[in-house]
Amino acid sequence: MSSGVTADLHFMQPPPDGVQAYIAINANSAGERDRNYTFQLKAVHIENYRERQDPLTLDTAGFQIFSDRPTEFIRDGEVQVEGYYEESIAAIKEATGASRVVLFDHTIRRRRPEVTEDAPDKRQPVANSHVDQTPKSAVARVHRHLPPEDVPKLLSKRFQIINLWRPIQNPASDWPLALCHFGSVNPEKDVRAVTLKYPHMEGETYGVKYNENQKWGYFKDVRPDEFILIKWF
Hints:
Layout (H helix, E strand, L loop, with lengths): L3 E10 L7 E4 L13 E11 L14 E4 L7 E2 L2 E2 L1 H16 L33 E2 L3 H11 L5 H5 L6 E4 L13 E2 L10 E7 L4 E7 L7 E3 L8 E5 L2
Parallel strand pairs: 2-10, 3-12
Antiparallel strand pairs: 1-3, 4-13, 5-6, 7-11, 8-13, 9-12, 10-11
């Protein structure tokens, strides 16, 4: 067994059965986001995935790290978006064999507790355990980001939603990314749909409830010349 650390993770404590969980995206003036559920802290063993002998892949674990992949489109923490998008599309096609890749947004996260505004370049690291997409929100993404005439054909086939995660300036030693092996998650008991309330729309993610059978880990000190692909759907 590989080494690791023990850390407190935030897990969802949902509202009563039959009550739809929700959370506001934008924080109020006190820095708090309105929601109708709470979180509980649980001390969890987090494995150092770099020490594993068996490979962790998108298909076997739900995530995969790629090393020795420097980018020319990030300098001093600034992203040249157009070039980086093209490079990311090529990387995802190579990794998955996908015939078509559409990037629909990006987020730059920096730990700045004094910032309460939600914007793509002002978001904080997410401290709570979650899954970015549900089946409902995944289908909504196809409708929102693809041409209407393409949607029926696309939804009749397998599609995936994948996150490309990369440090943009320094190794990710502060606030590293914790990842849960999907084979250790009970989809019937461990997740609960959460409505995301934006100012002009709504989305949906899964909150994750604690289960001692879940297997968590991280890739220690991910470098800017590395990236992680995470399969959300």
